[in-house]
Amino acid sequence: MLVVNTQEAKTNLSALLAKIEQSGEEVIICRNGKPIAELRPHKRKNRLLAHPVMGKIKIHYDPTETFTEDEWSGETI
User: Fold this and answer.
1) Cα dihedral sign for 9, 14, 15, 19?
2) Checking DSSP bridges between strand 2-5 and strand 27-31, what pairing results, if any?
3) For residue 65, what are the contacts with CB-CB under 8 A and spacing of at least 6?
4) Per-residue DSSP letters for the chain?
5) pLDDT tens digit string along 7-61?
């Protein structure tokens, strides 16, 4: 993990980003010796995995079934 001050980060931002992209190393940016931000490689989420909450939803009817005459208001939009 690389630690830099704000001035160094501002001056060398492109080089820091290249280093992160190449090695995957994280960079901590400090102001007055105190950490204020982190730069780290972006990790894409796997969109094929089901969301844990969505898997708990249960539908107890057929959402594709058509309306009956009583359920249909007959209004047009």
Assistant:
1) positive
2) parallel
3) none
4) -EEEEHHHHHHTHHHHHHHHHHH---EEEEETTEEEEEE-------TTSPPTTGGG----S-TTSPPPTTT------
5) 999 999 999 999 999 999 999 999 999 999 999 999 887 778 878 888 888 888 8
CB-based contact 19:2 (threshold 8 Å): yes
Tokens representing 12?
A: 């060398």
Any idea how long the chain is? 77
Q: For residue 51, what are its two tokens?
A: 């969301």
Q: Which domains, from first to last, does the chain contain?
A: 2-56 (3.40.1620.10)
Output the pTM of the full model.
Answer: 0.57
